[in-house]
């Protein structure tokens, strides 16, 4: 990618159903444009998808389908990292940390949780309840400046910002506060059969959405059957949710303003409008479908895209995770992390934030003296060890307090 001096955008789509036109217009459409000005991380949120039961074979097939569709929709793999959420362990690692500072009440209030759980809140899986925390982890790990999403994700974005501020005020400035980007038209397309509910790829009724890979005859049928309102006037109006939704769809695929579309159909009626809309969608999806077909079978290429994407994502996310762990006081366990052992007040490189606990130093020194891994009676050590800290008693590897053998010998 090599674009990390640019502002960073991150977003994700769950492979919980076939990619549909609402996902394209609410999210994907803008990614291709934003990647010119932003370092881009585009994630297939497979761990979010399993918050609802998925058929394993379908989930696997669909994950590859998403990679191919991203590329077909104009995502340039030279500019953007495309990766699977499950390939980057830092997401679930940060999820756990954030879980430990998230009040249950915040999650209970989430509209999407309430919609999905319905009246069976106590029966739904913990994963669904925890969904927004994983999403916050996804975003905060990358220090995203911008997160392009549809309208339905606004509340999750607010939650993410709130979590970031809360964490920062408790532990220092670790997280960047991300901004939300929503498209001007089509940020919330509604179901074709039920304009009162959001168009969704996981809808059990496929007639409620147009999938990006639907063939022309299916698109014509779905649009013809789309619910409209009483009357015959093609006009956007709160009292006409069906036709308003189709107008938003028309505007999004044609790039025209709603007013000029309305003007064209004055006196013409729904049937003609719907026929034209279907053809507009078919024309719009045709190049995407052609590009998709040219790469879908190339598993080597698709795996390579994911491998490269995951490498970039891991590098970026692990840096943030290390800062988080450090901020909350988890020791790194790295061989080269000496801060833990530095005696307080030592003149050599030290971190005043990480004073050395006596027992840890004692364990290390005793190992050096005994030449053994045995820990031996460490419980009685506190006073004695403080004395032993005064001089280094290694014989002489490079000991816990020194960086070089010379330094270490000087202590002897
Ligand atoms: P998902 O897969 O449900 O939706 C993916 C994107 O499509 C948008 N969208 C819509 N836009 C307009 N009209 C619709 N009917 C419509 N339906 C969906 C969504 O707003 C979203 O932008 N939670 C995310 C996935 C995710 C994520 C993240 C996103 C996981 N981690 C981190 C951003 C950053 C979701 O809703 O996926």
Can you characterise this structure?
This protein has 412 residues and is mainly α. The chain has a three-stranded parallel β-sheet with strand order 1-2-3. The chain has a two-stranded parallel ribbon with strand order 4-5. Helix 3 crosses helix 12 (270-295), helix 4 (90-99) crosses helix 7 and helix 9 (216-224) runs antiparallel to helix 12. Helix 8 (154-171) links the parallel strand 4 and strand 5. It has three domains: 8-184 and 296-326, Rossmann fold, CATH 3.40.50; 206-291, Tyrosyl-Transfer RNA Synthetase, CATH 1.10.240; 334-411, no CATH class. The protein has 16 helices and five strands. Tryptophanyl-5'AMP binds at residues 10-14, 22-23, 25-27, 45, 48, 135, 138-139, 147, 149-150, 152-153, 186-189, 198-200.
